Amino acid sequence: MKKEFSTRSEIFNEQYLEACGNMSWYDFVIAMPSLVFIVTGWKSNGKENACLQSWSTFAGSGADNFTCIMGKVDKNGHMYQSLKETKVCVLNFPSYDIYDRCIKTIGNNQFDVDEITASGLTSEKALKVDAPRIKECYLNIECEFLWEHELFEGSREMVVALKVVNICMDSDHYDQNKLGRYGKTGFLYQVDQPTNPDTGEKTTIIAGTLEPSDPIPWNTK
Ligand SMILES: Cc1cc2nc3c(=O)[nH]c(=O)nc-3n(C[C@H](O)[C@H](O)[C@H](O)COP(=O)(O)O)c2cc1C
Questions:
Q1: Which of 27, 167, 208, 220 is the most exposed place for a label (fewest CB within 10 A)?
Q2: What CA–CA distance (Å, rounded) separates 168 from 129?
C-alpha cells in the first residue's frame, strides 16, 4: 500500500537528526543510495584534508564540460575552507575493500593532521591541480571550483559545482571483465539507515554496491 509522508513523525526527533549530521527525516524515510567519494585538498597549514562526501551528482554537457554538483557541503568544514582557498580538489572513489580506512578520515579530522596518511592511505600528487589525491582509490577526479550557492536561504550547507579537468582511473576497473566499475569491487554507495516510518525500525545498512541488471530491450514506443 502506498502512503503519504508530509508531516514528520516523532520517531524522527530533531536532536537525533542533528546528531546524524544535520539530516532531514526524509533522508531516512527515502534512504536513497548516493555515491561515496573522498574530497581531498590542502589545508592552509599545508596538511592533507580528506572529507567523505555523498549527496552529489555528475553531469556532462557538451564534449568538454563535465561537472560535479556536490549537493551538501558544510560551510564550517575544512573541505569547504580548503576549496575556497585553493579553488581545486580531487574526488577519490574508494572500493569496499578500503572503506574501513576511509571512515578513519572522520576521526582524523583535526586541522593539524595529515588526514590521508593518518588514516592508513597513501597521498600522491594530482596531475592537473595542486591537491593531494589518494593512491588506493581506483578513480581520482581532479576538479576546479566553478560556483556555489546556498542550498536554501540561510542553509548551513552550500551546493558547490566543480569542473572536471583530469581523470585518473585504474585499468582493471574500466575493464568490466576484471574488477570493473560495478559489483562488489566497483562504485560504493552510501545508504543511510533505511527506516520504517511507521515503526521507527532501522536497517543498519551503511554502504552498498551496484548489481547490474540483465539488459532491458530499449523499445521506446
Ligand atoms: C559516507 C559519508 C558521506 C558524507 N557525506 C557528506 C556530505 O555530502 N556533505 C557533508 O557536509 N558531510 C558529509 N559527511 C560528513 C563529513 O565527511 C565529515 O563531517 C567530515 O569529517 C568533514 O570533514 P572536513 O572538516 O574536512 O570538511 C559524510 C560522511 C560520511 C561517512
A1: 220
A2: 12
pLDDT digit of tens for each residue in the chain (221 aa)? 999 999 999 899 999 999 999 999 999 999 999 999 999 999 999 999 999 999 999 999 999 999 999 999 999 999 999 999 999 999 999 999 999 999 999 999 999 999 999 999 999 999 999 999 999 999 999 999 999 999 999 999 999 999 999 999 999 999 999 999 999 999 999 998 899 999 999 998 889 999 999 999 999 99
Nearest Cα residue to atom 22 of ligand 1: 51
State the cell numbers at 16: 537525533
Q: Is 52 in the pocket of ligand 1 (CB under 6 A)?
A: yes
Ligand 1 atom having least distance to the Cα of 52? 17
CA 166–ligand 1 middle distance (angstroms) = 23
Residue in the block written with cell 569496499: 96
